[in-house]
Amino acid sequence: MEVLYRSTRSTEGTVTASQAILKGLAEDGGLFVPQQIPALDVTMDQLAGMSYQETAYEVMKLFFADFTEEELKNCIARAYDDKFDTKEIAPLKKEDGVFYLELFHGATIAFKDMALSILPHLLTTSAKKNHVENEIVILTATSGDTGKAALAGFADVPGTRIIVFYPKNGVSPIQEKQMVTQKGKNTYVVGIKGNFDDAQTGVKKMFGDKELAAEMNQAGFQFSSANSINIGRLVPQVVYYVYAYAKLRAAGELAENEPMNVVVPTGNFGNILAAYYAKNMGVPIAKLICASNDNKVLYDFFQTGEYNRNRDFILTTSPSMDILISSNLERLIYKIAGEDADKNKTLMQSLTTEGKYEITPEMKEKLKDFAGGFATEEEVAKEIARMYETCGYVMDTHTAVASSVYHKYSEESGDHTKTVIASTASPYKFTRSVMDALHKDSGSMTDFELVDELSRISGVKVPAAIEEIRTAPVLHDTVVETADMKKAVKKILGIN
Ligand SMILES: *Cc1c(COP(=O)(O)O)cnc(C)c1O
């Protein structure tokens, strides 16, 4: 049966995959979810022999049912090409007995590339399929990595413009440099005087602003979202969990149907939700281990069943996980509420008005596949140093959160199931924090001196993404108050 999508906040109406991709967020503020998560229709043994691109097709054809085979294969071929520095696209590295699924071999050396290299193609294909004449304006709030990956994905894609908002003081210097040096006639980067949640709230408000939508339509524009709430972001992320399992089978690391655990360094809950979808498609995944940094709102949620964002926002060395409202969690809440849109809506309203909600014991019961953990800043630094000392493998701060959480989890639970850790960024993206953890940061070295030093000690070549920005000129320098985000958008689009 062809998969259609509906909103997590209403019982009315369904849309096709291409319509859901175009809209991003549903009009009622809910997130699009498939009516049912489709089961894989090929065996693991078949998948074991497939390339990343072939695996991507097998997964995406089930979710993006209104795309033709040709359209989908075209999108996949344009996304997963030599922008990635390895043919495997998402290689697995076995280090210290654990499998690190390296999701950072794309254009911007972070895992967001996995989805954002294909989203522009899914989106322009969707626009064509639905006879959209307006220019598509991508509006994105970023905690660092999404911004650059989206800019890189959409730069100079005809029929699109992209506007990225980022917290001016909430991203790493290299992340900021990556964004403000972005080329492309259709790219705009705006810093805000606030944190990521402020940026995300501002963007969400604009998506829901009917007056603005009408003004834009009159001027020949319409919004779409590249944030991880877009189903066109989520589904491509399911692929690498299927791929990882199949490759571990192919390598003889897993017996037939032997389960694996997955550990995911989590912020907005998109990546780990994709793993949950993979499990629901039939991939033998046992535990989904949700790893948080000091902003451990998700850890507390899995412990207690209460989601409570009323707490201090902590800036950590893993900024892409510094999030107090994990938007994609809504899709899981909807599912464990028995796909009850009203129930979900009540909880989400409570999150908006009171900053918290509590799920019922029956709902909590359905979270048994998940385990939550968190790592402090000290533990993160220690884990980076430990892995370097034991096997010479240098990981970034986000991956280290997951790695630290994994070791605590397996010690406490005695669960020694084979484990895949989602490795979400190259250490070169967070060089100073990584070098600090390795006690190699003199404090007086520039970011690029540290990059060279990291290359020397790790024996890993400096990625092209970093080389490029060494000397690149700053092309974007706008900074606005959080309250002025809408004004900034109108100015960019020439709407008064
Ligand atoms: C975005 C990001 C995360 C968090 O992923 P979510 O899907 O938002 O949970 C973790 N690590 C890195 C490096 C990221 O860029």
From TrEMBL:
Family: Belongs to the threonine synthase family.
Taxonomic source organism: Jingyaoa shaoxingensis
SUPFAM superfamilies associated with the record: Tryptophan synthase beta subunit-like PLP-dependent enzymes (SSF53686)
Domain (Tryptophan synthase beta chain-like PALP) ranges: 98-421
Segments forming domain Threonine synthase N-terminal: 5-80
Name of this protein: Threonine synthase
GO molecular function: threonine synthase activity
Keywords: Lyase, Pyridoxal phosphate
Enzyme Commission code: 4.2.3.1
Cofactor(s) demanded: pyridoxal 5'-phosphate
